[in-house]
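Lecture 7, part B: from sequences to assemblies.

Below are the input chains for today's worked example.
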Amino acid sequence: MTQIRLTTPLTDEDVEKLRIGQQVLINGVIYTGRDAAHKRMVDLIKAGKENELPFDPKGQIIYYVGPSPTKPGKVVGSCGPTTSYRMDPYAPELYKLGLKVSIGKGKRSPEVIEAMKKYKGVYVAAIGGAAALIAKSIKSAKVIAYPDLGAEAVHEFVVEDFPVVVVNDTLGGDLYQEGIKIYAVK
Amino acid sequence: MCQDTGYAVIFLELGQDVRIEGGDLYEAITEGVRKGYTEGYLRKSIVSHPLERKNTGDNTPPVIHTTIVPGENLRIVVAPKGGGSENMSAIKMMKPADGVEGVKDFVLEVAKNAGPNPCPPVIFGVGIGGTMEKAALLAKEALLREIGEKNEDPNMAALEDELLEKINNLGIGPQGLGGRTFALAVHIKTYAAHIASLPVAVNINCHAARHKEIVF
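Predicted structure of the full complex, as structure tokens:
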């Protein structure tokens, strides 16, 4: 299977060419955020305070993760994806502001899939549970916002060939539905 | 392995001839969890109140299940439980007329619903019988059984095999991307039920099935 390399920040064209099932290697800066950070960010957006967001979502990637603590001498702790549906109530707001990719694992809601079609975004999956392995593709890590949230703080990662699979593309395709069709036994 | 190092679920089997001196046993276990998660660089994933949601900072408190057994040993089983697979678990109070077919349908419904979310390949713990909370506990206890270990009840062993095949025939596969192995095992535990009830609980464990025990 061919692998595609993407380097942030991303344009509409970068993500429009992606199709479900493709393997992608991500390079550059990505940001983390999960339940509590998303709530804070979307509260800011709803209050019209986009300029106070920890980062400008335009052209960027958000990774749904709460890393485990960093051992001495390491860049980051174990760092695998968390289940994405919990961010579904918030994700459309971020795609609307230009977010291009979210990284997680598990199904997205019809509302998020629709938002990705409308605002030209994709959803990709990292391998759930392979967190120690994934951490090896993270070359630097720092907390840039909400340190009081502990593991849920917003981090900025610099990644090299961070491996993901395209689950939802800008055409509304869904790998979780298509993949099952191939293997289901009636 | 996984960054979600779980809710610390502890199963205590306390021999009835054991006398514990020098302090509160549950406090000692809590301190063990605190030290383990802090000194072991494990993630602190617990909030003190489900609605206020402030992180406790040391992964306490644990969930402790205690049983009293004959003898003079103390057995402690530590079974950290990840949130992703726990969230895809479910319980249903079925009626006796639903029978074994109803149980199968419910387990398959839970599997289908879970799809890619609980980090497949997963293990299914199925608790059948008892009261509502008993069924849930049976399901969690069923997850402690080693993969490959057969159910002692041949009927339940056959039901486990049938359910495993049916679950894998859904085609969900590893990571939910499509494939033949969604579940590694189905483990059933049963208990006496009320004449009016057929409780069924399904507890899902991701492939990071971390269990460790110590016996004193």
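Note for the exam: Chain A has one domain: 3-177. Keep this in mind when comparing with the next example.
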